[in-house]
Amino acid sequence: MARVGVFICHCGANIAGKVDVEAVSEAAINIPGVVYSSHQKYSCSEAGQKVIIDAIKENRLDRVVIGSCSPKMHENTFRKTVQQAGLNSYMLEIANLREHVSWVTADKDEATKKAMDLVKAAVGKVSFAKPLTPGQVPVEKRALVIGGGIAGIQAALDIADMGYEVVMVEREPSIGGRMAQLDKTFPTLDCSACILSPRMVDVAQHPNIRLLTYSEVENVNGYVGNFNVIIRKKARFVDERICTGCLECMGKCPLKKKIPNEFENGRAPRGAIYVPFAQAVPKVPVIDKEYCRYLLSPDPDKVEVKEGEKKPKRKCGVCAKVCTQGAVDFNQQDELISEKFGAIVLATGFNLFDHSKYGEYGAGKIPDVITALDFERIVNSSGPTEGKIVRPSNGEKPKRVVFIQCVGSRDEAKGVPYCSRICCMYTAKQAILVREKLPDAEIYVFYMDIRAAGKGYEEFVLRAQREYGANYVRGRVSRIYESNGHMVLKAADTLVGMPVEMDDVDLVVLATGSIAREDSVELANTIGITTDNHGFISEVHPKLRPVEVPREGVFACGACLSPRDIPDAVATAGAVAAKVGVLFSNDILMSDPMVAEIDPLKCAACGACVSVCPYSAITMEEFRGKKFAKVNEAMCQGCGTCSAACRPGAAQLKGQTDEQILRSIEAVLQW
Amino acid sequence: MDKLELQLRAKAIELLEEGEVSIIIGWGPGWNSTKATPVFARDGETAEKLIFNPFCFNNLSVYLPRISEKTAIIAKPCDAGSIVALLAEGKISRDNLYIIGVACQGIVDPVKLEAAVGSIDDATAACLEGDNIVVEIDGEAKQVSFAEVALDRCMSCNQQNNVFSDVMVGEPVQPVVGEARSVVPEDAGAAWWRGFWSKEFDRCIRCYACREACPACYCRDNCAVQALRERWTGPRLDAQEALMFHAQRAMHVAGRCIECGACERACPVGIPLTLLHEQVGKAVKKLFNFNVGEKVDERPPLETFRKEELESGH
Amino acid sequence: MPAYAYFPGCSLEASAKEFDTSFRAVFDKIGVGLKEIPDWSCCGSSQVHKVDKDVATAIAGRNLVLASDIGDIVAPCAFCSISLKEAIIKLEHEGPIRSTLIEAGLEYLPGSVSVISAVEATYRAVEEGLIDGKVQSPLTGLKVAAYYGCLLVRPPKIAQFDDPENPSSMERIMVAVGAAPVDWSHKTECCGNAYIFVNKDMTLNLVRDVLNAAIEANADAVVTACPLCQQNLAMRQPHMKQNYGLKREIPVLYFTQLMGAAMNIDGQQLGLSGNIVRLINKRQQEAKEVG
Amino acid sequence: MGASVQLRSIDMDLKKEIERLSGQKLDACYLCGKCSAGCPVAPYQDIPPHVVMRMAQWGSKKVLGSKMIWNCASCGTCYTRCPNNIDVARVCGALSQISRREGLVADKVAATLREKFVESVKNNGRVHELSLVVAMKMASRDYLGDLDIGIPMFLKGKFPLFGHKIKDLNNFQKLFDSKKKGDK
After folding, report:
1. Which of A175, A400, B43, B216 ranks highest by number of CB atoms within 10 Å?
2. Model confidence over A552-585: pLDDT tens digits?
3. Which chains does chain D touch, 3 or more C-beta pairs < 8 A?
4. Between chains, do A479 and D84 touch, taking CB under 8 Å as contact?
5. How far apart are CA A434 and CA A422, in angstroms?
6. What are phi and psi of A260, to 5 degrees?
């Protein structure tokens, strides 16, 4: 017969304020199997833990129930406590009397009764607990960083500096990310490229970092310390080992001014063979197979030639002809690289809201209504206008410039209820840049609230207003339309409580908000983690575990978690590096023993568990002609799905067996 | 002799002789002519016993998961559905299987037949003549229209000539036209069902014939109720525990049951189990838009995992 | 022949007669049947809605029930179509209002009927090619400003048709009859609806802005699909020219009137004035000379 | 509007009544002003829509005396563009109902229009435009204005002297009388 001890925690007044802890403790002693029961003010305190340890020893308890807060908070604490008393740490069950009872139940008597039921259930469950032992897995001390923006760069450099090997995967031809597209950065106004490009070069030159650009992660298998990742290295058609970066080829491409350059947000052209921008790392061009004439023309070897006809020749191929190194290789194919990693870092960044969803602002069709990212390129001296602020419609200097904030932020109707956090600041910065370049221009900023919480941020916004003469108008713009070569804008000044109208507007800059990458959910699925409603990666705990995600060994930093500015992206990247360092400081990891196991004698070999397992942790085995399913304990995450799907009850989650669950229910039902 | 049966036997013998398969599963004459019985033929002599008529109500696919040699099976449309379901689960291998489909115009419901003509255990002869079933009992030939005594399920079947098979035997047929007899009132709510099943399950003697006859119940010795857990699915003759057993079985075959009715026909105390499985089947159809027995490459919906299920989005 | 349940609405019986007659004539020509809903009543319009939204839903519901035997409803007036559309959405969830209807001998079955406006019905007909071959004298050279006003495409959750900020269906229809739609800024600005009686100054200001925008875009005429828009825009133009800075007078027509003209439907049925007919002829002539 | 609003006197009953009649959640509004910005009639009113919303959030009775709540044209511009999916026209409608009940109508002419319109619908099943126009002319005391428009329309048969009465008027009027069952 089990000897169960019950300990009811007051949690100060958190539990005791609503639950009659004494009554619960007294009732517990009458539950079959319980030989000891008491209550304490704070079970998690050192004194409280001592009471538990002493009681276990004195009363020869072999199982423990603690009625306290959520196991999420203190399960680990109490596991160690019972272990100190000489018990296996899994001979413990926590009845959640705080989150499940006192915090959510209004009536005192009801709360006390519910607490008693939960304790009964816990006793029922723990009575059938079995000692469990954690397994051991070795750690592959290499990190994969997905995304080569400022967050990924920082994380990669920090991890590499600790002496661990890093592979960085970036899907664009160059690293640099969003920050590379920016002109100046707030609130210091230093040049974005000037502070970023040294870091990019560091990545390229670091002996511990291997850079895979123009590459994407295709599949992730395995578990913490032992991930198997398949990376698709897309065909670049230029051999990175040979190319010297002279870029002679780019100038000769007949399409050199024909294709919108994504890096310039489509506001400047590129060729079919190109590097996205001057400081690109690596400075090796790619050939865009969607456009390249050579690659699009039919392969003569594959064309059927009728008698008497000439074999067709492939078109163009100029780049290959001008390359002195012979680096252009039209026969290159996508390459699948399979690598092993101990940790994965997500730094996939963000996208900008598509303002064509705002019909009232011209749906992207009015040429002089541009986005903030367009503005960054226009104002940048290496951008399409060499830094001259001009109206896209006619190339003239604008006299009246209007900024509109919260376009695709704080707009529930457009599916983006959240604040993008960066727009207030970059709008102030852009207003300042307008004033610097166009001393006579009128500048207006339509805003709802100014959110400038950050070091030097509020001062920066005030400078935009006071020193640079940006007129801030509190109110949202309702509509923009063209009239006589200019724009008319209908707005409201809510501080005076009046509608206002503005004629002869020359340039409108929309502060488009941050959204998740369009394929973030897909990526999350590939990696086996989750996103929030908006596609941002979910962290384990927003306050206490802000860079960990619910799959062990996977971390995230930067704007793929939520909208954030450069300082925050860099800070989280550093945090991730520290977390990876902690992980890699172990040679061996202890795995959670609460994993599934399958009784081969009960298994009917239906395969349901194999097909429902989210982590591909179950395989079909055969022994002497009999098939049965088997769990790979290192890959199992203990979700219990197999156990639910298993008809004969062969699959059981250790520590949460059918027997334990049924005993809990029976205890509550008082069978 | 029926042309269809001749073809059937010829095909079976051919398959055996050519070594295509080592065993043929089909129906043969039972201990009385209203009761066809399964036949397992390994030689031509046994294969000569094969028959097919409206009394062949067993779903023979129930034997497939237990046989690992090369097998040919004679399948009517509903049995073929079971075979598809078993293939979809990977429980049997297509490579080891040769399916002889038979065109089927309907099967006699023994309960209806008995109600119409009296104790069919005493029948001395029975056959389908035109649109009527003729049964001879105590020397008296009793005649009843086929539509009157056919299985409800056959009235709504539209697969009679379209059987998932390697070869089809028999001429195309017309389905039997009649009306299904539902005992369920249109407005049946939870209370009605509770009353109905407590009455029905009170008769259950826990013989497990339903389970044995069911092609989806291949767990056999590993069946969950083998645990006979006290107070849950205990071994007592108790309507509640019987309900628990049958409800559990219904859940276990949900998304895999083709509602062939083999369980109901096997039940010695006449519990209308098909009704239970139909109810569950409707829910599966509605929730997952899944038709059991339609595709060989789609696992049952309750046995699949999609990555979206990892809480992404919502 | 496909057939709609036709809901003319109060205005089309009176002040907007030519919308009624021209719409019927055009649909007759393209072979789409219109069966008037027997004993139809007020749509529940925004005025009733503001007094009691449930009563408005109930009286709109009456029309839905009466139409359900005929088919999907086409309601030319923008107010009517939006009221009826909203009622469909409301009645889905409003059991008590459905009970009220039952008390009045009307049982509404959710999903039994749907509602579209005249523009939607015409747009569908154009897309289905029903007007192909019916346009005998295309309105070549005629520049039209398609005016949607408010409730034809708004609010999008209820209207569920076209783009609320930059609609283009009427332009598509105009192209189909050979006219040249102009791009202009005020196609969805409000005309002030019935407030001409309440705040005349306000309404005339709004109307002036709309018309001047069409004039600036060089339109020959404005086409509408709403009785209130047409009347507000068409009437009082001389007065506005004198006192409100209206740049010039400009014809304002129902889109169906122009369609009818392109299909050679008798001018009497369309209610077209001689001036318009002459304008159309002039543009056609000019186009011929240029082309 | 004189004296300051005592915030502790938020009238929750009024606020709830507005929410019930309008079906809109007032607290969803964060007062960005987009409704006022696009509202075609706002420039001609005493207060713009977002101020109506703010006062409604307070449950301030002052809003009942506003002209804006009577002059909303129900054009749907605000609702179409509102970031929080609020139909401000419905809020104005609810406020005008309460305003009429409390005798605080600021725009008598607009109130008459509504009253006559609904009366016409209730008595005939449809609106008789001519009687509505005449009633409005009387209410606004603009007896002769627009005669230049009205007379030709009348002559063209666009203003039939007598309205159409629907046949099933009896049942139709029941739709006005029976109240929503959940109301009491």
Report:
1. B216
2. 899 999 999 999 999 999 999 999 999 999 999 9
3. A, C
4. no
5. 18
6. -65, 130
